[in-house]
Design a protein that fits this description.
single chain, 156 residues, alpha/beta, five-stranded mixed β-sheet, 5 strands, 44% helix, 17% strand
């Protein structure tokens, strides 16, 4: 963790707020190079695009893999407002990003959604990424209370 990590987590929380303002679920992601320069940003687009795979991280990895080669992506960090789901963790793995920093934990998010929500797949991203044959550093939750704010009132 460093000052860039905190700055960029706050940036993805803002992106998540933009996603919510744009009529989508409040999730955001960005890709930064090894120096902390923002390369790409992405919002959740599930509702407006009518695409169940339109998670911020999956959208970001589609853009990143079109624009950058695998060797370059291995030096990048993916920042996300909320812990990546299993689908997005797979996209991160296959895209070859080797560092992930997230704000709100899966557990924290699901706690806000309530017991009745069946759209819950309890599988932390660390458990998925540790099973690969390449090392992927996962840091989080980071600034979890700040990351929760964009979700307040959305899931009720």
């Amino acid at each position: 963790m460093n000052e860039n990590d905190l700055r960029l987590i706050r940036a993805v929380i803002e992106i998540a707020g933009n996603a919510r303002n744009n009529g989508n679920e409040p999730f955001g992601a960005l890709l930064a190079d090894e120096h902390g320069n923002i390369l790409l940003e992405s919002e959740n687009t599930i509702i407006t695009e009518k695409d169940c795979t339109g998670h911020a991280e999956a959208n970001l990895m589609r853009q990143a893999s079109r624009k950058y080669d695998r060797e370059f992506l291995a030096k990048c960090t993916l920042y996300t407002s909320t812990e990546p789901c299993p689908m997005c963790a797979g996209a991160i793995f296959w895209g070859n990003v080797r560092r992930v920093v997230y704000g709100l934990s899966e557990e924290g998010l699901y706690g806000m959604m309530g017991e009745g929500d069946e759209e819950v797949l309890l599988l932390p991203c660390r458990e998925i990424l540790v099973r690969g044959k390449k090392p992927i550093e996962v840091i989080g939750p980071v600034l979890e209370e700040e990351a929760k704010k964009v979700h307040e009132g959305f899931w009720n």
